[in-house]
Automatic annotation (TrEMBL):
One of its GO terms (biological process) is alkanesulfonate catabolic process. It comes from Mycolicibacterium moriokaense. One of its GO terms (molecular function) is alkanesulfonate monooxygenase activity. This is Putative F420-dependent oxidoreductase. Pfam families: Bac_luciferase (PF00296). Residues 11-230 form the Luciferase-like domain. Keywords: Flavoprotein, FMN, Monooxygenase, Oxidoreductase. PANTHER family: ALKANESULFONATE MONOOXYGENASE, ALKANESULFONATE MONOOXYGENASE-RELATED. InterPro entries: Lucif-like_OxRdtase_Rv2161c, Luciferase-like_dom, Luciferase-like_sf, SsuD_RutA_monooxygenase.
Length: 292
């Protein structure tokens, strides 16, 4: 099982040093969140809290995850980065392909593209994209981005996007893995159809096991049972070594954690405290040899 450090809502000036420390203590990945802006009034419920409220406010710091991956990649050599997840629905897929390809090249293929649709109508509409038919449109966006990242002269003629022959150079020297977020049946089918992995929001181990079982069946139905596939999990009830063994048994391949939160610290805790948490966590789980 891999270990990934998530960095949502961290002060931006901490990100570079956190990446350096995460690599030093042998974390595998950094998961980078996405939020474009904070609207004063929300017209839809946030889907990952019980009451639909957001877990952040207008002063909470965010940075574009692709820019963060490029900056953090420049000070590391082994650590991988992935968006967790990029909300595609409010973006343009041609511009997004240019950005994703740039990050993949600048990090020497140490980047994975975690994708989702987005939940807030305001993010779509205020960025010039329609909220209606968002699922079908994001499916087509993924097709466009994959096509452009593959290199060569290509064209696309779809329901939502249409362009004549063009080429983006240089193409990444390896395929960029796509990780699909979401818990709905539609999202799970999307992951099984086009994804190199699935990424969760906050779930219990039992919920994770159930969803992973569904995805494995969907992969088998799609003729992909033998394909490599990652299951990236944010688990809210398995925290010790035995719990991590349970996650592996459930099929989790990548455990997304925030060590400073486990230590009772807040998102805005001082950098040195977060670095201490990373080191303690790595000593306890990454270096302890429990997976041998």
């Amino acid at each position: 099982m891999q270990y990934t450090c998530a960095v949502p809502m961290c002060p931006i000036d901490q990100l570079i040093e956190l990446a350096k420390t995460a690599e030093e203590v042998a974390f595998d990945n950094i998961a980078l969140p996405d939020s474009i802006f904070y609207m004063e009034k929300q017209t839809a419920d946030y889907p990952y809290t019980a009451d639909g409220s957001r877990m952040w406010n207008e002063e909470t710091p965010w940075v574009d995850p692709l820019i963060a991956a490029g900056a953090m990649g420049a000070v590391t050599s082994k650590l991988r980065f992935y968006t967790n997840v990029m909300k595609l629905g409010s973006r343009n897929p041609v511009l997004m392909a240019r950005q994703v390809g740039s990050v993949a090249n600048l990090t020497n293929n140490r980047f994975g593209f975690g994708v989702g649709i987005g939940w807030a109508p305001e993010e779509f509409e205020w960025c010039g994209q329609p909220y209606a038919k968002r699922g079908k449109r994001v499916d087509e966006m993924i097709d466009v981005i994959k096509l452009l990242l593959g290199g060569g002269m290509v064209e696309f003629h779809g329901e939502f996007y249409d362009f004549e022959r063009l080429q983006m150079s240089p193409a990444p020297t390896k395929p960029v893995p796509f990780y699909v977020g979401g818990h709905t049946d539609v999202a799970l089918k999307r992951a099984a159809r086009i994804g190199d992995g699935w990424t969760s929001a906050m779930l219990t181990s039992d919920q994770l096991a159930e969803i992973i079982g569904k995805i494995k069946k969907l992969l088998a139905d799609a003729g992909r049972a033998g394909d490599p596939f990652e299951y990236q999990a944010v688990c809210i009830d398995k925290f010790d070594v035995e719990g991590h063994r349970d996650l592996v048994a459930a099929g989790v391949t990548d455990n997304i954690v925030m060590p400073w939160v486990f230590d009772g610290l807040g998102f805005d805790a001082p950098l040195d405290k977060k670095q201490d948490s990373l080191k303690r966590y790595a000593d306890t789980y990454i270096h302890s040899g429990w997976q041998n």
